[in-house]
Write a structure and sequence with these properties.
387 residues; alpha+beta; Beta-lactamase; eight-stranded antiparallel sheet; 18% strand; globular
Length: 387
């Protein structure tokens, strides 16, 4: 029996047995949740002890919080412990917010995801790299969201990159890259090739269509309706209340270093947001509620359905979400890595299981793609689907 069915079966039994049965059933459900919480806590402690996890974890099953814990330090210099209010860079978990913005604008009739990028941002024919110019006129917003546009993976620093001040110059960064690099070196087609620059281009589309800075549009169309008060654009020079500092071990577990100097305005739309566990749970609750306040079910299905298999991976990709299965149960998830921070959100819709993991410290192994967020998520998910 999968654990997502426990609550329903408990309620059915209670209806048949009356008040005494309700009390017994509730006790059974509480015992089950306590056992799960103890097992999850063992996984979290192990990640803290062996993989340098400091941060917050929350797990919800059928609407109930069965595990929530803050562990370790938000600021190592002053020994400030984490609390449930701690905010973290969420890195590539940001992509699902960008995808949602694009789909929201399509719902409002402001764009069509099957039209090419050039429909919304006119390419500069006289100055663009010739291969970028060709791709710009060919790739669609759908292909950018599903990573099938053949776009380069990472953002390149340009003369507009700044770690001194905050300036909203997304267009300058994108256009400078388009002049100097081939932004579409891969094959445009059915296989997904993970790309950060693709989502930066999508953010630029949002700015072009709305005539607003990306983070302002995000707040208007997504943040305000859901009251996401702890989510926004990160910059190291911003004063962000409850923001946890990011740390990494340069080598082994001895040389702890603080995150420094990366300007998040260079990768707006891809991995530039910060958030906390409560906001991310609110976000997931809305998307998977069946009665979203921000998107139609058609748009949410587009986000959470597989569009293409990932190159070099067993996963498939939707829009801003990976899609796979665990023990025969569909999983929709995404993780993120930005120096000093790791993040992950995961949903098993069939079981109404939601997991959020946010961390602000990692060891050197993370540079080799050993993300403790994935390990921790897999352990929790296997636990919840194997009973």
């Amino acid at each position: 029996m999968k654990l997502g069915g426990i609550k329903i079966q408990v309620l059915m039994a209670a209806a048949l047995l009356g008040l005494s049965g309700l009390r017994a059933a509730a006790s059974t459900m509480n015992d089950s949740h306590n056992e799960l919480a103890e097992a999850i806590d063992t996984f979290v402690e192990q990640a803290h002890r062996e993989l340098s996890f400091h941060g917050n974890v929350e797990v919800r099953l059928a609407g109930d919080v069965i595990y929530k814990r803050s562990l370790g330090l938000a600021n190592a210099e002053f020994d400030v412990p984490h609390s449930e209010r701690s905010r973290f860079m969420i890195a590539s978990v940001s992509k699902q917010f960008t995808a949602a913005m694009i789909l929201k604008l399509q719902e409002l009739g402001k764009l069509d995801i099957h039209k090419p990028l050039s429909t919304y941002i006119e390419p500069q024919a006289n100055s663009f790299h010739p291969d970028t110019l060709e791709g710009w006129r060919q790739v669609t917003l759908h292909q950018l969201m599903s990573h099938t546009a053949g776009a380069m993976r990472d953002v390149r620093f340009t003369e507009y990159y700044s770690n001194q001040t905050y300036e909203p110059f997304l267009s300058s960064i994108v256009l400078d890259m388009a002049r100097n690099y081939n932004l579409f070196p891969g094959e445009i087609g059915q296989q997904a090739r993970y790309s950060n620059i693709g989502y930066v281009l999508l953010a630029y589309v949002v700015e072009s269509v709305t005539k607003m800075e990306f983070h302002d549009a995000l707040q208007l169309y997504l943040g305000l309706p859901l009251a996401l008060e702890s989510t926004g654009q990160f910059h190291r020079m911003f004063h962000i209340k409850y923001m946890a500092d990011g740390y990494n071990y340069a080598d082994g577990v001895e040389d702890l270093r603080k995150r420094c100097c990366f300007d998040a305005t260079s990768f707006v739309g891809s991995h530039s947001l910060y958030s906390d566990v409560d906001d991310l749970m609110t976000w997931l609750d809305d998307l998977f509620s069946g009665r979203s306040e921000i998107l139609t079910e058609e748009s949410i299905q587009l986000m959470t359905s597989a569009h293409a298999p990932m190159k070099w991976s067993e996963n498939e990709y939707g829009y801003g979400f990976f899609v796979d299965e665990v023990n025969g149960v569909k999983r929709v998830w995404h993780d993120g890595f930005e120096y000093g921070y790791l993040s992950l959100v995961s949903v098993l819709p069939e079981l109404d299981l939601k997991i959020v993991i946010l961390g602000n410290r990692h060891n050197a192994e993370v540079n080799y793609n050993r993300y403790y967020t994935q390990e921790l998520n897999n352990k929790i998910t296997n636990l919840m689907t194997s009973h």
